[in-house]
Amino acid sequence: MKALILAAGRGKRMGELCRENNKCLIKMAGRPLIEYSLDRAYQIDSSEILIVVGYQAEAIMNIYNDNYKGKPIKYIFQEEQKGLVHAIECAKIALGEEDFMLMLGDELMINPKHCEMIKYYYDKDLFSLCGVSFVKDKNLVKKTYAVIQNNNRIIKLIEKPENPINNFMGTGNCIFKNEILSYINKTPINPKRNEKELVDLIQIAIDDGRIIESFLVCAKYFNINSYIEISEANSYFFHS
Length: 240
Hints:
By secondary structure, the protein is an alpha/beta fold. It has a single domain (2-239), classed as Alpha-Beta Complex (Spore Coat Polysaccharide Biosynthesis Protein SpsA, Chain A). Helices cover 26% and strands 31% of the residues. The protein is built from 7 helices and 16 strands. A hairpin with a 2-residue loop joins strand 5 (67-68) and strand 6 (71-77). It is globular, with a radius of gyration of 17 Å.
């Protein structure tokens, strides 16, 4: 299994903070944000770490070069930032025929359980496994995606729902069989964002009868897209 970390976006919502810096290099508790994903990629004993880069790619490459703690790194360029599904498509050749764990370079998880997640994926022989976080405030689900499920089997995913019906907040940490790549061409372009959405890619596979489940991957989850979220995440580190 390979680890695929997406770190190509500029982070436009971050304003001046990311005007000349990649969002994934923002310091969180004294470390670049992407390092938390790199730690997970190392801990799951992936065969290779693939990082999709684009905006300020050299900054990431100059820090981590060709390995992280001895684990080989390969960089894939996403010349146009056209969304997560396009970034995965850019990595298609580098992924080869291996299954992979997807991670986002701007995510932060407290007490993550990626090794347990990998074991669950293999034990259940799933097509895919989506990492989720249980949140007390359902409004947080509006920031990512909602997960509608029955005994952990996912029935439907809803991108940034206006009225979440439960407290399960979807994350970008998902495990996929390599066959998920065959669904990219079938994934529709979201008319609002003019790009293919990760949620739609997974939904196409669900609708095709593939068995996809959810897994509580962490105790606390942050998707860093604003100064407020940076402050909240740092506060959690220093006061937890």
